Amino acid sequence: MSGFTIALRYVKRSPYQALAAISIMTLTFFVAGLIFLVGLTSSTILTYFESRPQITAFFSDNKTTEQIADLQNKLQSTGKVSMIKYISKEEALQIYKDQNAQDPILLEMVTADILPASIEVSATDAKDLSFLADILDTEEGVEDVVYQKDVIDSLISWTSAIRTIGLMLFVFLAVVSLLIILTVTGIRIALRKEEIEILRLVGASGWYIKSPFLMEGMIYGVLGGFISWIVIYILILYATPFLKPIFTGLPITLPPPLIIMLLFLLGNSLGGGLLGVIGSFIAVKRYLK
Amino acid sequence: MLDFSSVSKKFGISTALDNISFTISSGEFVFLVGPSGAGKTTILKLIINDMVPTSGKITFDGKDITKLHSSQTPYLRRKIGMIFQDFKVLNDRTILENVSVALEILGKKKSEIISQSLKVLKLVGLGNKADFFPAQLSAGELQRVAIARAVIGNPKMLLADEPTGNLDPKTGWDILKLLSSINKKGTTIIMATHNADIVNSMDKRVIKLSAGKMIKDVKKGKYN
């Protein structure tokens, strides 16, 4: 019998211990999976906002193009700007026309004179948006400054809070999982003390004796990672109709592409397997001398 | 084949073996006799490197096993089969699995393991009980399982620690006949026992121990 077959036999013979170990592993990797997905989504959204013109400053009619060019240079010199785009009155009219092409009545009433010239400013880091907005706010001839400060600020704070709490929870659960695997393996070793002694006497190598225990830990971890992946996938599919409207206009695909989910499964299973092996390895080191 | 040279073993202040020296050649059948606590089992444990002597040198097959690294012990034990008074069978495995474990650890092919295990079980008279579990077997049959497991890997030496101790006289004799036939095929056997009838009738070499000292080593000896 191979180490894997013996490990499966151990799992079948003590189903409650196995269930406890698999459950805690599932919970751990469910939390890890959620952190991963929240992290992936939030970073995609942040990247999206960061790559867009995030601040728009509208100028009064008496602001000259030279003054606007000076302002652009002033902004560039901060080193916190990734892109600045000037939109003249004529370009603004064109944008307006494109956006309202379906409504000719609205188009008739608007001319280039009543639309303000503007600049669109992208920051290299979303955190610098308020700094750039302050420069624009204090500039003479700037009538209005529009930017998605609230959205980005709350996104950054929520993401950071979720990541911190999630990571703390994950670390806690990972430690608990490790202890449970260690305990289960320790009980197994104690129960099979006589068998281990016999195997040693007939000349079994250390690896032959230890491998079933390591495999058992790995089985718990991989199963935990796999089950948590299934639960998360089902949750995503269930929540997709409710989440889609929230993410409209954002580069978030729901449900996520299969390749992403398969990579996620791979990560969860490998992570689970690794945690399981580490737990049982510690037990083997501790109890199998 | 096996050489004990001034071997002593102490456990704290008590002496289990005191300056023991003997040599056993290939193909010999040797009885280790003496009362309980004489040091018979200690000698067997030293041979399989289950413990190391306090002083002295033990050579097996030309190698000093007292200097063997623990990682090499399994390889030594594959050359030395061992059977015990309490059989030491795996109760949750079938008879076939109990015997085949000795080949599994060598990494042999599954088909080879099964065919060889069945062959050895047949040799010890258990060919029809391969799928039985230990709980379904008598004490004599369990000892046969242990012998089958010990000899399946063709060891150079077989150590038997009181193999008839838990058996009735008739079954004990059956086991001895089996060991004798294994010895005739060339396997060296060292058997620790305090069964005087068996020792006296076999007319083999006898090493007698008492309180850790070797008091007799006779080529064709008797128990007393």
Q: Which spans of chain B have pLDDT < 50 for at least 5 consecutive residues? A: none
Q: So how many helices of chain B?
A: 7
**Helicity of chain B, in percent?**
25-40%
Q: What is the arithmetic mean of pLDDT of chain A?
A: 86
The strand order across the widest sheet of chain A is 2-3-1-4
Oligomer: heterodimer
Rg on CA atoms of chain A, Å? 30 Å
Main sheet specs of chain A: 4 strands, antiparallel
Tell me the fraction of residues in β-strands of chain A, as a range. Answer: 5-15%
Number of domains of chain A: 2
Identify the strand order in the major beta sheet of chain B.
6-7-8-3-9-10
Written account of the structure:
The complex is a heterodimer of chains A (289) and B (224). By secondary structure, chain A is α+β, with helices and mostly antiparallel strands. Chain A is built from ten helices and four strands. Helices cover 72% and strands 8% of the residues of chain A. The radius of gyration of chain A is 30 Å and the shape is elongated. Chain B has 224 residues and is an alpha/beta fold. Helix content of chain B is 33%, strand content 28%. Chain B has helices at residues 40-47, 73-77, 95-104, 110-123, 139-151, 169-184, 196-202, and strands at 2-11, 14-24, 29-33, 55-60, 63-64, 80-84, 157-161, 188-193, 205-210, 213-218. A six-stranded mixed β-sheet of chain B has the order 6-7-8-3-9-10, sandwiched between helices. In chain B, strands 2-1-4-5 form a four-stranded antiparallel β-sheet, with helices on one face. In chain B, strand 9 and strand 10 form a beta hairpin.
